[in-house]
Amino acid sequence: MIQIENSGTRRLEPIWPEVDQLVYDHGVKARTNHLYSVVKDVVTPMEWPIFAPLIDAINQLKAMRNATILAHNYMTPEIFNCVGDITGDSLKLAQVAAEAKEDVIVQAGVHFMAETAKILSPNKTVLIPDMDAGCSLASSITGADVQTIKAAYPDCPIVTYVNTSAEVKAYSDICCTSSNAVQVVEAIAEQWNTDTVIVIPDQYLAKNVAAQTDIKILTWKGECEVHEQFTPEDIEDLRDAHPDAVIITHPECPPEVMAAADFAGSTSAMAQYVRDKAPEKAILITECSMSDNVAVENPGVEFIKPCNLCPHMKRISLTNIYEALRDVKYEISVDPVIADKARASLQAMLNLPKVDNPFHFDTGKNLASAPYVAI
Ligand code: SF4
Questions:
Q1: Ligand 1 atom having least distance to the Cα of 311
Q2: Less Cβ crowding at N or C end of the chain, within 10 Å?
Q3: What is the pLDDT along the chain (375 residues), one digit of tens a residue?
Q4: Ligand 1: residues whose CB is within 6 Å?
């Protein structure tokens, strides 16, 4: 499969083939059989001979380049389980990126996640297999918008969701993820001695946080294009069809959807809930790959999958991970001045006391308002 060039006594780097030249031979089969046994319930035997040569080549390339792959929970199962070294939600991936020992970080996720990794590990080579893997939340707000908000509300701290560009983080006071948003809001309100905090850009996360705290929240009109599509009627229909299933949702969903669910939290909180409670039947109201990845870990749980695909996350494939690592291409760079400021916002979040368990939103709380900032 892989040719080795020799030149006298000097051994050159193997010539890595084009994707269509990778074959599923006995060697690949032997080296990847253990991985197929992990994903056999969510990857068909017909798909495996296509995936396995890429998985095998990526895992060899990782060792050669001293690289680590950070795989978000929304990656497809063959990426998440077979080439991901560190897996989890945005908070965990940011924490790991800050402490990575490897020379190269490959972000199997979207662009803002790779930027976060670069900001926290500025001396590493950070690759994103597809530069166009964006996010509707990240594109809903600019650094200039944040500067305008800051000028209009000089006494209110700005908490920015990590699903934003480096520039947006740079002009913010602290970042948050869906795992720690409530903790961050309460901590920064105390630090600033204020009862009002601005949470941007996800209006639904902001409203859901507002329902969990006494702090007044102002927000921005951004949404996740995956989670905003779920409706309370969807939840009702699912309950009617599957009365014995536990319904678990993500705080990027509209508050009415959260209120109708049994449990709500970040992707890490969702996975932990299933692990801890081991329900007979579960419905995860979030991106499609999440159920597959949680199912791998919980074979005894039956999953109903009423999911929405994230078109940005789905731009990442084994093929472009292989090509990025093979050619060390699609490297992320961040303006150093912006990176320094954005790092301060991220570090303010990472400096908060680590909590043992990701926050879970109390779905029994009343809905709360979170008006938009007036600028
Ligand atoms: S799932 Fe939503 S928040 Fe996550 S990357 Fe896709 S659009 Fe952005």
A1: 6
A2: C
A3: 444 444 445 556 778 999 999 999 999 999 999 999 999 999 999 999 999 999 999 999 999 999 999 999 999 999 999 999 999 988 889 889 888 899 999 999 999 999 999 999 999 999 999 999 999 999 999 999 999 999 999 999 999 999 999 999 999 999 999 999 999 999 999 999 999 999 999 999 999 999 999 999 999 999 999 999 999 999 999 999 999 999 999 999 999 999 999 999 999 999 999 999 999 999 999 999 999 999 999 999 999 988 789 999 999 999 999 999 999 999 999 999 999 999 999 999 999 998 878 889 998 887 888 999 988
A4: 110, 135-137, 163, 224-226, 287, 310, 312-313
Nearest residue by C-alpha to atom 6 in ligand 1? 310
Residue bearing tokens 């999440």: 290
User: Which domains are seen in the chain, by residue range?
Assistant: 6-135+313-327 (3.40.50.10800), 138-226+340-361 (3.40.50.10800), 227-304 (3.40.50.10800)
Ligand 1: which atom is nearest the Cα of residue 225?
7
Kindly give the number of the ligand 1 atom that is closest to the alpha carbon of 310.
6
What distance in Å separates the CA atoms of residue 149 and residue 306, rounded to the nearest whole number? 37
Closest C-alpha to 293, from 33, 38, 37: 38
Which strands, in side-by-side order, build the sheet including 174-176? 174-176, 158-161, 196-200, 216-219
Contact (Cβ atoms closer than 8 angstroms) between residue 279 and residue 245: yes
Whether the model pTM is above 0.70: yes
Mutational test site, ligand 1, from 177, 224, 307, max ligand atoms within 8 Å of CB: 224
